[in-house]
Amino acid sequence: MTVDFATLADRIVSSLQGAVTGTKVAYGELSVQAEAAEIVRVITFLRDDPACEFKVLVDLCGNDWPQRQRRFDVVYHLLSLTKNCRIRVKVQVDEVTSVPTITGVHPSAQWFEREAHDMYGMVFEGNPDLRRLLTDYGFQGHPLRKDFPVTGFVELRYDDDLKRVVYQPVQLVQEYRDFDFMSPWEGAPHILPGDEKAAMAPGAASGDPGKKP
């Protein structure tokens, strides 16, 4: 079945006036930009409307654009088995604005929303169990934010004196690493592991382990 995305987009926009702010077709999928406060209405329509029937929530994820005033995209990926097509719904929020949960429409969104909250700090209003999912309970910050340091804020280790795991600020044991990016075609100036016998061969004294007398 071939879906006419232009017709589908017109139907969605006309049926969800005030909730949908734009549409775009890219890479064989229809993307819909929606208002965060209206996301439940949008997702419900896409599930129940006979021309849509996007009944499967494939994924819910996020994206971070720190230079934007509303820095986060909350992205919903939906699948219609009867129409054999997918749709992407995006809403924009800032760090303090919450997004209504869609667990009442798709119960499977429970863990997706928990993951987005854990990784980005997005708040889903009405989610009954918005605990961290992938990081530890004492974890500080949200790892997928663009301004999150690569080393993190804290690290954990086992303390022999306290006989338990403790948290402490990250301590870098060295400022940077010195990598040897020499081309393998140039040949190493030092004896490589396993070449010790070659270094003892005649001619090795000249500095060329492979040189024949």
List the helices and strands and how they pair.
Layout: H1 5-15, E1 20-26, E2 29-34, H2 39-48, E3 56-64, E4 72-80, E5 85-93, E6 99-100, H3 109-120, E7 124-125, E8 154-159, E9 164-169, H4 196-199
Parallel strand pairs: 2-5, 6-7
Antiparallel strand pairs: 1-2, 3-4, 4-5, 8-9
Structural summary, described in words:
- The protein has 213 residues and is α/β, with parallel strands linked by helices.
- 17% of the residues lie in helices and 26% in strands.
- It folds into two domains: 130 residues, NADH:ubiquinone oxidoreductase Nqo5 subunit (Beta Polymerase, domain 2, 2-Layer Sandwich), CATH 3.30.460.80; 26 residues, no CATH class.
- The longest helix has 12 residues.
- It is elongated, with a radius of gyration of 28 Å.
In short:
This protein has helices spanning 5-15, 39-48, 109-120, 196-199, and strands at 20-26, 29-34, 56-64, 72-80, 85-93, 99-100, 124-125, 154-159, 164-169. With 213 residues, it is α/β, with parallel strands linked by helices. It folds into 2 domains: 5-134, Beta Polymerase, domain 2; 188-213, no CATH class.
What is the C-alpha radius of gyration, as a whole number of Å?
Answer: 28 Å
Counting helices, strands and paired strands, the structural category is alpha/beta
The gross shape turns out to be elongated
Strand composition percent: 25-35%
- Estimate nothing, just give the exact number of structural domains: 2
CATH topology of the largest domain: Beta Polymerase, domain 2
